[in-house]
């Protein structure tokens, strides 16, 4: 398996009726919520934070297949890059083995008092590296 296919964290999310658009598949905007839910669960488990000390700076999504009511999506997550004050999540949203969406987001660590960017806390960096293991061998 290529390193780009390694996702050490997965969360399962059932599709709700409210997630659908008029064509009866998951609305494109809802995928951002799926990514957010998976991101927060990753942060809680891996760095014991809830994301309150960071902001979303960028998100990019590529839609590959529709998702419908009754499906449960698996949202696979990995950190693909650690910067000085930011880090990048890569995502794969799938139903079973079929990939419905791939995505990427960049989060920036911010000082809670000033709102300015700050270096990633050392304990976050260490926790992410330990969790991701060899996936982050380059960072």
TrEMBL record:
The record's section on Pfam families has: 4HBT_2
Which GO molecular function entries does the Swiss-Prot or TrEMBL record give?
hydrolase activity
The protein's Enzyme Commission number: 3.1.2.-
Give the Gene3D superfamilies listed for this entry: Hotdog Thioesterase (3.10.129.10)
Kinase is among the record's keywords: no
Statement: the UniProt record of this protein carries the keyword Hydrolase: yes
According to its UniProt record, this protein's enzyme class is: hydrolase
Which keywords does this Swiss-Prot/TrEMBL entry list? Answer: Hydrolase
What positions belong to coiled-coil segments?
none
Superkingdom, taxonomy of origin:
Archaea
InterPro entries per record = 4-hydroxybenzoyl-CoA_TE, HotDog_dom_sf
Q: Which family does it belong to?
A: Belongs to the 4-hydroxybenzoyl-CoA thioesterase family.
What name has this protein been given in UniProt? Acyl-CoA thioesterase
Q: Name the species this protein comes from.
A: Halomarina ordinaria
